[in-house]
Target: DNA-binding response regulator, NarL/FixJ family, contains REC and HTH domains
Amino acid sequence: MVRVVLVDDQELMRVGLRMVLDSQQDVQVVDEAEDGDSAVAKAREHAPDVVLMDVRMPGTDGVRATELIVGEDLAKVLVMTTFDLDDYALSALRAGAAGFLLKDTPPDDLVSAVRSVHEGDAVVSPSVTKRLLDRFLGASGGELRDDSVLEVLTDREREVLVNTARGLSNGEIAERMFLSEATVKTHVGRVLSKLELRDRVQAVVLAYETGLVRPGAE
Model:
């Protein structure tokens, strides 16, 4: 059973989300919150598997709430935004969200996303993350972190990280680097493990923030 806390400042939105999720045999909405502070409190109270989080709320917004929930390892967070190219979405990914959905996502896709996050997968694709980073980090490259964190990687692993950050799938990376897809998958796993990252999306963000990949690079 996937236990979910819903967070949105609009009651009508919460009602709709609850109807969709509670209709599934393997998903249960255990509580709701209308702002970021309540979201953190509910996560501490229930220790849910997934928090479905609106990012734009008065007071403590969803980004800060995500940072607190992930920082305390209370739950995985899936954020909801109105637009796919949204600086709130990028901030939420940086704060540790497993991905984001648009608020008009079809019900079946919403349920699938909640299940995927519960199973440890990232919902937003690396290519979408790349578009976000290209738009909001700008031409400077956004070197926000010391690139010495990448020194634990081999040259091959660093190349895999670069291609991942460019939004390529494992199959596309395999073709570009003349490797098998299984080998690429192994390298990606080692990159995530060495850099202590949760998923590919976090790897993309790190690659940009260390300047390994620049906005607009192909």
